[in-house]
Amino acid sequence: MKKSLIAMAVLAASGAAMAQSSVTLFGVLDLGYENVKTQAGRISGISPSANNSSRLGFKGTEDLGGGLAASFHLEAALNPANGTGSSGTSANNQSTTTLAGGLTFNRRSTLSLSGNFGELRIGRDYVPSFWNTAIFDPFGANSVGATLANYTLNGGTGVRASNSIGYFLPGNLGGFYGQGMYAFGNRANTETAAGYTGTVNTQDNGRYIGLRAGYAQGPIDVAAAYGKTNFAAGTQSVALGNTTLTHGNTANFNLGGSYDFGVAKAMGTITNQKYEDVAAAGVNKTIKGWSVGVNAPVGAGNVLAQYSAVKLDGAKADKWSFGYTYNLSKRTAVYGIFARVGNSGGSSLAANSFSSGNIGFVPGAVNTNQSSTGFGVGLRTSF
User: What are the two backbone dihedrals, phi and then psi, of residue 297, each rounded to the nearest 5 degrees?
Assistant: First the structure.
């Protein structure tokens, strides 16, 4: 009898623990045919993540009582075209990254504590200044259709930051939402690198601070975001088509919004990306961009369309994007996307996919001031 009571007590305790905790396996697999043409040539083949980012993830929550909960989130980017991890990661938020190949939890790797106060999150996560150009893009910052402003982001913290501490407002503020983030570069105060004026101290390289605030109620959703990353002058570089900018600090301010009319959701963004100390100390450059788009449900699918543009000094690129997603079920869809990029004033951007692990484009100076086209068709499922 005593053994039976002990066994029952153990099972009851185990059941209570399981009721207070949960662990979920999730993921997305997205593959399709992609074809990108520039004046320099053409590249085509199987490319991932045009409709949704391919990923594998684990997440879990533990109820701590008193309204508190602890949680973790591990999410790895995948390239199912060849079975590798994709997009690599940036350990200390520099513009150069660890190359893709092995499986890393590069999309997100966080530990959180949440309650009535909101959520405190630590680890590698999306930066606040990226969200508007993804959420208010009908193509969700994926595929050849993605808004052009995403192609000109700083590579170190344009999308995500490592070594970060983030805070999210609670979700009961009558539609108001917001987040803040501070990310460390994790560098010693003795670190140096070659800059414009010789050897410079780089202890602050990779340090990011960002904020995002918005309001979503009924059909309307609007938000503003700002992010800045510290880099010593002349120690970082970003590729813009056939042009590479060597620079220092970067900043990104953007506005985004959408309105759901029922028959269609209209959305748009305005972006202002600043690069300091471009090519020489004291020379600042600003990339200005904007987009307008629509997502219209039609039958079992959605029609997507967008116009986006970016401008740096006299150089300008614009893109027309069109797509259709047909939902075979709640988890599975087929899709087709087409985009055309035009360049002028020395610009040379291409219509390649913004998706992680994409096949890229054919580089070459011959594409300067010329057009580029890209299209993709594919299949996506989630679990």
Answer: -70, 130
Range of the domain at 268: 25-382
| pLDDT tens digit at each of 383 positions of the chain | 444 444 444 434 444 444 478 999 999 999 999 999 999 999 999 999 999 999 999 999 999 999 999 999 999 999 999 998 887 777 788 765 666 778 899 999 999 999 999 999 999 999 999 999 999 999 999 999 999 999 998 778 999 999 999 999 999 999 999 999 999 999 999 999 999 989 999 999 999 999 999 999 999 999 999 999 999 999 998 877 777 889 999 999 999 999 999 999 999 999 999 999 999 999 999 999 999 999 999 999 999 999 999 999 999 999 999 999 999 999 999 999 999 999 999 999 999 999 988 898 888 888 899 999 999 999 999 99
First-residue to last-residue Cα distance in the chain: 45
Considering only CA atoms, which of 352, 287, 351 is closest in space to residue 320? 351
Which residue type does 88 have? G
Q: Provide the domain count of the chain.
A: 1
Confirm whether 12 is domain-assigned. Answer: no
The CATH number of residue 359's host domain is 2.40.160.10
Q: What is the pTM of this model?
A: 0.90
In the numeric block, the tokens 């808004």 are attached to 147
CA distances from 21 to 14, 133, 261 (A): 11, 34, 40
> Is 182 part of any domain?
yes
CA dist., res. 195 & res. 246, Å (int):
10
Does residue 203 form part of some domain?
A: yes
